């Protein structure tokens, strides 16, 4: 095993009674990586993370975190910060008390004021958890995950329910963590966020890992898209693909086809209205999952 291996999952199977939620799942995450585990609803992402976090034993297979079993709390807990989808903070505690309590349980040390500032909660330090908004509770979850600068941070849908400013500041905090070499594993349904930030993406569907790779590797298998429309009476363009009165062209030769189209528009004196041209997005890889 190389020393850079932070998470090593081999042939993981997770079951609930007779139901198999995750099967044949293998993936590795290396030190300093941001790995996004994405998937359709019910794909098994949270079940997988629960095993990685040591909250659920696998039905079979092997999971190693920093070379140890996730159940080995003394070895793993001080090095791993976790932001669950739903936290269980006591509603009567203040934000400061909650961060202090969970921080102390982590076995790491930190300055609570610093952590509150990182999570944008300084103004809410004395507010009781019961009085926090949904977005503020997510920030509190984030604060406890990053308390003490763990080597590995697991974020389960970290930006769900956050407004755009809060999302931006959470990602800025994640970027700062990464600058210090922290490894990050996250799930999200905001695919753009993963596309922008993940070093590698694992795509799960119905309990198995269907695809894995960098964004470029995942999108390489699908065509890029050019869309535009033409003014009434314009001649036929050199490429075809009609959609709702406009044009929607799928191509594996984006540069070539775009060059041809622009040349035609210039030579014909025809404006290309609402022109867009771009690579395939992770959304499209997602939509293709069912047919794989
Ligand atoms: N405690 C449980 N008991 C029985 N089935 C469960 C339990 N937890 C999850 N499941 C089932 O296991 C499957 C995987 O669920 P999981 O929460 O891991 O998916 P997910 O990928 O995180 O989904 P989502 O994106 O919707 O949050 C689903 O079919 C779910 O209904």
Automatic annotation (TrEMBL):
GO terms for molecular function: ATP binding; ATP hydrolysis activity. InterPro entries: AAA+_ATPase, ABC_transporter-like_ATP-bd, ABC_transporter-like_CS, ABC_transporter_ATP-binding, P-loop_NTPase. The keyword Transferase does not apply. It comes from the Bacteria. Residues 7-231 form the ABC transporter domain. Pfam families: ABC_tran. It is found in: Cell membrane. It is a peripheral membrane protein. CDD domains: ABC_DR_subfamily_A. One of its GO terms (biological process) is response to antibiotic. Keywords: Antibiotic resistance, ATP-binding, Nucleotide-binding, Transport. Its main location: membrane. The keyword Transport applies. GO terms for cellular component: plasma membrane. This is ABC transporter ATP-binding protein. It comes from Nocardioides jishulii.
